[in-house]
Write a structure and sequence with these properties.
This protein is α/β, with parallel strands linked by helices and about 525 residues long. About 65% of the residues lie in helices and about 10% in strands. Helix 10 packs antiparallel against helix 11 and helix 18 packs antiparallel against helix 19.
Amino acid sequence: MRDFEIFYQFLPYFMVVLFSALLFLVFYNRKVIAEVFRSVEKKTWIKVLLLITFGALLRFSLIPHEQIVTADGENVVELGMSVNQYGKLIQCNYTSDKNCLSADFPTYPPAYPVVLSGVFNFFEKSERTAFSLSSVIGALMILLSFLLAYLWTKKENVALLGAFVFGLISPILKFSGSVSLELFLVFFFLLTLIFFEIFIEKKNKAMFLLFLFALLCTTYIRPEGVFLIGIFFISALFRISIKELFKKIGKRFVITSLGLFFFLLIPSVIFANIGRGVYPDWNPSLTKTAGHFLDHYLYNLRFLFDYSINPLFFSISSFLGIYLVFLKEKKKFLFFFIPLLAYFTFYSSYESGIISGPFIRYFLVLYVFFFFFFVRAIDYFFGIFRKKKVRMIGETMILLLFLGSFVLTNNYILKENDGEVEPVKEMLLQAKERIPSDAYVVSLGTEARVVINRNTISANIFICDGINKNFDGKKAFLFKTESLESSPSLEKIKERYELNPVEVITYRGKEQGVYELVRKI
């Protein structure tokens, strides 16, 4: 870890620079962006605002706010806290007010933890704040999907229905109540596509830079971001050739901009390479990869038509859209279908690349590609209903068909996580006022830090004699979960400390919860 300490300290500041550059470019291009959407009527913007409000209400009042993938979500929140408190992208397992005393390799890129860190400057440093941020991001996707659908069709009614549907895609809606890098990836990829479409329409230098910086930020959200840009650049050639690009904005400018882009991509490549060195399963053999694909791809295809999770009308319409775009718009078909196919193949080739349970999160970005084909299908349907009365009937039927298929996914959306830690984490919240702010919580994970913002120390570090001496005169509490029961660390802690119950429940036949540790004489 020490070999890369400077690198992990550099990453958050690097991301702040990237995000700042992106915001500056958005401001610089504000007139161009506004011009593209100037023809949208005021009443349509009011409808979009209502859709966003509706989407936010759903996410804050109906969707369970909990970790769907407990360890991953908590680790991302903990990274955000470390960036906020220590200015480093580190997975801290022995915290203090001034510095992290022991840390592990961070498995997640810096983009989202840096955003979380910024939010923690204004709101409570806790998991609940992170849940709320996910809901806000999910609601704002409705706006982005409207803008994107409008750029594709230049039809407000199509874009409105598209935004409404995208806001209710069940897996995206579900993960809007959790902490998920994949949700943020979808958000930023939508943003990147918007800037790309505006650039294709306007073909000016500043928009080209804006698109590149948005794409660059996208690569720092998930480890496979570098793969995404490679496929995206290849497919983008079907929309605009190198020759045309040189002609419209200048050969020197294009080469310089791309040079800067790839230079700024270096930290992402370094991060991925460090990960492959520390975690061999990040880079499986070709034989294993092929085997995973053969095991997964049929199941993953069937998932798209699983009516209990996916709104079936969306899936069917998307596949109809694939056919329609293939017939009429070959270049756009290749632009969207090649990344879709590449992503599907890429994910299906990994051990966890099966679209079920928590692994659904890896495929959320695929919905962006399917969304394009869905919008094309809706545009086709609306084209059939030309007369006003017929159009109203047709639009109502489409809306009812989608809502009917969406209702079938309710059990998936509303079902609460049955994970091991979630029920016991309530004990932390109930015990919060009885755990002093300067006390330490001993556990296997970082739950106490992300749930109640207390200093934490991992159980295996706590039992070391050198560390124990540092606890003379300090209060320590144990957060005991089912996982800790099977750890040899617990028995060693019991040898040295009395466990006085603070907030305890019996869960799965075992006593779990929060205990005050009192040193035995």
